Amino acid sequence: MKKQIQTELHAIQGHINRNFRRWFKRYPNLEGVHVGPKKVKGATLPACYAIVFHVSRKKQRPGKPVPKFLRVKKGDQDYMKVPTDVIQTGKMKLAGIKIGERTKNQHSSLVGTISFYFSTPNGVYLGSNMHVLAPQLLRSGQVFYDARKGDPPQSIRLFNDVIASTARLTVAVFNGIDFGFAKVDNPQVPEVIERIIKEVGAVKGVFGLTRANVHTAQLSFYGISSGRRPCAVTELGAVKNTNLQHIFLTNLIKLSRCTLDGDSGAPVFDQQNRLVGVIIGRDDDASYALHISDITRFFQSSNL
């Protein structure tokens, strides 16, 4: 039975991944979608999963109502009838925080998290959300940045109560994921910062969430507004709309609504202090995070 459920969930997630762009065009009120337990009058139906549509506001008589069931391909010739659900979530809100110190683009007032540092033969880099590192580029509609291909320089400030330094944005993307990397001008700064961060401690590797391990993972995040706070995963594979036309954030970790204003960008850890993901924002129903595996793939493709 467990294997059958996993197979069906995989098929439903694949159906979402193939069709969400068409749904966003069809339903103008749509803000997101995920696969989750079917609920009727607040009660969860046992062993019944649905394609859950997020809307900014529920309407008594929507112009284009979501069908009660969708036909989903399961295997080569087999199909299953999957129920739908509609929840009111409001719009996704992106905001910034810090962990131990703050970072921001010098041309922006938005302060955000440095999610982590890492070293390469070319120097020390920091990682954070693109909406923190280059918000003015997003406002102009630019969703990809690469300084090595001639994009105008973007200077980043790093600061806390003890020190201040600068970094230069190298590469960033806001499509599928929301992340970027900047080269630190003073490579000794991260060592100072690491000694200051007492609440979280040293990161001890990474841990990828899957449907097989998600229900046993005990997670927490660290944000300037919340401090260190536990967070529960409710679903995987969520898709959320953005303020930019035809741009979506995909394969998101859907969490209980555990973050406060300003907590976007916070690193998410398991009990062994392994990095699981990075908070990107919240709506009226839930908080959302990027998978560390998606960030790692972006890093590898960036050739830093």
Automatic annotation (TrEMBL):
For this protein, the record's InterPro entries field holds: Peptidase_S1_PA (IPR009003), Peptidase_S1_PA_chymotrypsin (IPR043504)
Output the superkingdom of the source species. Answer: Bacteria
Question: What protein name applies here?
Answer: Trypsin-like peptidase
